[in-house]
Amino acid sequence: MKLDLGWLVFTALVGGIVALFVLLKRANEWMYLTGLGEIKCSLPPGDMAWPFIGNMWSFLKAFKYGDPDSFISAFDARFGYTRIYKAFMFGNPSIIVTTPEMCRRILMDDEHFGPGWPISVTKLMGKKGFHGISNEEHKRLRRLTASPIKGHVALSVYLEYIKDIVKTSLDEWARMQQPIEFLTEMRKIAFKVVMHIILSSEIDPILETLEKEYTLLNHGLKAMAINLPWFAYHRALKDILQFLLRFVLARKRLVKIFQATVDERRAMIRSNRSKEKKDMLDLLIEIEDEDGRRLNDEEIIDIIIIYLTAGHESSAHATMWAVIFLQKHPQFFQKAKEEQEEIIRRRPTTESGLSLKEIKQMEYLSKVIDETLRVANISFALFREAKTDVQINGYTIPKGWKVLAWIRSVHMDPETYKDPKEFDPSRWDDHTTNAGTYIPFGAGSRLCPGLDLAKLEISSFSSLLSPSLQA
């Protein structure tokens, strides 16, 4: 009798655990699919995983342990090679698309898709940042900021800042007695460069404070708002409100510093105190649209934070990977070096140092950078949100769901790139890029507005890190 009772208790316990497991495993689907009606029958295959966490655990595991492509490969293996899947990512029901055709459609179709970045990005980047504003407002800001961001005159001025800072940093490295951590040092260089581009030399006295506050803000952009013991930030903060408050305060402190700088710059303009060289802030203050409207302070500050993010983290990582790849492949390094030496030989005696014209002549270095951005995939995906129910490849993307255009899969597609994991700049010699097959900076109306500045930074860093161009 006791034995039967024990087996009964054991069976009930196991059954309860299994039932709880099934309940939790299906909770996200019940929560987000129940109200869809017939639409749920036409959703792509996939797995929305666990409540709150969704698929983020497997996503973080794949990227942390050196096999990021395994995340999508697992969907391929489980649900067939449909290349479109439903999932639960960054706290939202989501659709992941992985082909060039689907990604391009998602990124180009402003009528059916709007911005869909995680809430941490939109809150910390600001209401007037490019990430979250409407398509109409986005087009207006793009028109207004085109000249300060990618105009030839502006880029020529920015190059001077880049050269000075990189050369000074290289001299400091040479005097160091201990080995350096390259990515950390590249981040410091990139931060100095982008801050001088935006605010010029007057930023020097508060550079260290700005870097500290921005680093904290940048960590918040990457954070998952999940307050569970095995997530890193739980160890340092008591609850999620304190966690989010920390990053919000970092943004407020940054805004306060930038506001003071904007106020001072406007006062200089009113009193006709001229500067020797104009920086990005000067240009942002001066530009006006066809109706004579100028950017307000909130718009200017949010644009500064956007370009600080784009010009700091992405440039540092891309430069690091370019150096690593060239070190691993000396034949490619030698070819890039020979190209730069030839440019130096053609340089007029009246000129000294690297020029914007010379950077544009570096065709092989450009291929190195394109291949670096393809293989390293600095951005793994771009985020959109469906404005209405959308049909794509026979499946339905429900209104309000996030859509992740998975850049990484596009750039690693063996149907487009032979041996895609191999770093080979020569693949670009005769390569015809079909629409949507190469999108490191996105596509459509929301193509990264700072791509010219980013490529200038990466090209300049790579060139100046080479001994041949330090003359």
From TrEMBL:
Record Pfam families: p450
Residue stretches spanning the membrane: 6-24
Residues annotated to bind heme: C448
InterPro entries: Cyt_P450, Cyt_P450_CS, Cyt_P450_E_grp-I, Cyt_P450_sf
Cofactor: heme
UniProt-listed GO biological process terms: brassinosteroid biosynthetic process; brassinosteroid homeostasis; sterol metabolic process
Localization per Swiss-Prot or TrEMBL: Membrane
The keyword Nucleotidyltransferase appears for this protein: no
Location, primary (coarse class): membrane
Membrane topology value: Single-pass membrane protein
Cellular component, GO annotation: endoplasmic reticulum; membrane
Origin superkingdom: Eukaryota
Keywords: Heme, Iron, Membrane, Metal-binding, Monooxygenase, Oxidoreductase, Transmembrane, Transmembrane helix
GO molecular function: ent-kaurenoic acid monooxygenase activity; heme binding; iron ion binding
Family: Belongs to the cytochrome P450 family.
Entry-linked PANTHER family: CYTOCHROME P450 26 (PTHR24286), ENT-KAURENOIC ACID OXIDASE 2-LIKE ISOFORM X1 (PTHR24286:SF290)
Protein name, as recorded: Ent-kaurenoic acid oxidase
Source organism of this protein record: Nyssa sinensis
Lineage: Eukaryota, Viridiplantae, Streptophyta, Embryophyta, Tracheophyta
